[in-house]
């Protein structure tokens, strides 16, 4: 049983996870990036990224340097491109075999590494794991019913973590298919931008359904090429997360797509200054797909729009005029 848990990252997702895990009866430390941030969080008991949600009174607050040693498991609720630095900082004081759970949905730029690979490289003492699925921070923080997937290469560890961190309102399904869980979370962010563009251009519900379905076909092809299991890709962390992210303005990536459809540039379309992971993931996903010979026209169109190589209107026209083909 993992009774003492540290959550690194005091943004919306980290604060939500700290709340739901504390309500499951675990001793939780929420670690901010520095002492000043920790002091402000301790004084207000609210993350500025999650206004109106108060931290459970049992949650301890400290700086990142305190999130090691006595904790049975550590969750890294920080953006994918900062995960390596955080894991490297934690490693010296980690007990061997401590689960370190990535809660970011992305692929590292430059290295093309998935999150558990980044943890394995930068924190050799850790047992890498990944948590992903259809969930918005505010829903989780408020205790609304949510179901996600937790994956570790050791299925027994994944199951034990799911039992320790989960609750009736926060259902954790476990698997040892870490790659499938990582791919679903990363790819859906890119496809959600495309969904936002379709909605922003008022192309209709039928077009949005078609985009989501064909987007899932791309996600599935990519996952298959990289060794993911079909049941993972069609589960919560794949299809489930894609459906949620392609249908709600609470999704940062979907909202960014809406803004792009309204004529704003990728730089201008930042969602209230919040990170949309799909912006960084899109070119990496497309490059990895190309290297494996995987066709991903929707993801490629998103990458081209974000890079300014093509306008939204031309990208839509190109997709609509693709040759007819068998479904698959």
Helical proportion?
40-55%
* Quaternary class: single chain
* Structural Rg: 19 Å
Order of helical and strand elements: EHEHEEHEHEHEHEHHHHHHHH
Bulk shape: globular
What is the topology, as strand order, of the major beta sheet?
A: 3-2-1-4-5-6-7-8
Number of strands: 8
* pLDDT < 50 runs, ≥5 residues: none
Helix/strand structural class: alpha/beta
Counted by DSSP, the helix tally is: 14
Question: What is this structure, in a nutshell?
Answer:
The protein has 328 residues and is an alpha/beta fold. The protein contains 14 helices and 8 strands.
Q: Tags for this entry?
A:
328 residues; alpha/beta; 8-stranded mixed sheet; 48% helix; 13% strand; globular
3D structure, described in words:
The chain is 48% helix and 13% strand. With 328 residues, it is of the alpha/beta class. The longest helix is centred in the middle third of the chain and has 23 residues, at 178-200. It is globular. It starts with a strand and ends in an 8-residue tail after the last helix. The model has no long low-confidence stretch (mean pLDDT 93).
């Amino acid at each position: 049983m993992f009774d003492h848990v540290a959550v690194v990252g005091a943004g919306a997702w980290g604060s939500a996870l700290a709340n739901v895990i504390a309500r499951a009866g675990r001793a939780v430390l929420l670690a901010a990036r520095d002492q000043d941030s920790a002091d402000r969080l301790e004084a207000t008991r609210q993350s500025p990224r999650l206004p109106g949600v108060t931290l459970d009174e049992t949650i301890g607050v400290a700086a990142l340097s305190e999130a090691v040693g006595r904790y049975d498991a550590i969750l890294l609720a920080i953006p994918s491109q900062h995960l390596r630095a955080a894991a490297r900082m934690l490693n010296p004081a980690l007990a061997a075999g401590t689960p370190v759970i990535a809660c970011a949905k992305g692929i590292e730029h430059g290295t093309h590494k998935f999150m558990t690979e980044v943890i394995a490289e930068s924190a050799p003492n850790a047992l890498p794991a990944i948590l992903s699925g259809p969930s918005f921070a505010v829903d989780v923080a408020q205790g609304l019913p949510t179901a996600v997937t937790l994956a570790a290469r050791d299925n027994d560890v994944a199951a034990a973590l799911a039992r320790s961190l989960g609750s009736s309102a926060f259902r954790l399904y476990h698997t040892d298919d870490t790659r499938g869980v990582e791919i679903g979370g990363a790819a859906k962010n890119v496809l959600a931008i495309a969904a936002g563009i379709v909605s922003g251009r008022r192309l209709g519900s039928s077009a949005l359904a078609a985009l989501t379905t064909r987007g899932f076909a791309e996600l599935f092809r990519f996952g298959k090429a990289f060794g993911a299991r079909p049941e993972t890709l069609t589960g919560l962390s794949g299809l489930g997360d894609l459906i949620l992210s392609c249908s709600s303005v609470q999704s940062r990536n979907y909202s960014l797509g809406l803004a792009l459809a309204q004529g704003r540039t990728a730089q201008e379309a930042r969602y209230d200054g919040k990170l949309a992971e799909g912006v960084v993931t899109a070119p990496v996903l497309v490059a990895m797909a190309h290297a494996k010979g995987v066709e991903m026209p929707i993801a490629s169109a998103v990458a081209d729009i974000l890079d300014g190589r093509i306008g939204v209107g031309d990208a839509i026209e190109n997709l609509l005029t693709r040759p007819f083909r068998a479904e698959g």
